[in-house]
Amino acid sequence: MLQLQNSLVELLRTKPFSRITYKEITEGVAIDRSTVYRYYNHKNQVLQAAVDVRLTAFASRLDLTFGRMETVDGYLGRLVDAWIGLWLESGPLLAAASGLGAEPGPERDWWRARVEPWTEAVREAVEVARFVEELPRDGRPARPLAEMAVNLCLSTFTAELTVPHTEEHRALVRDLLLDAVLRTLGRG
Question: What residues contact residue 33 under an 8 Å CB cut-off, 6+ apart?
Answer without folding.
Answer: 26
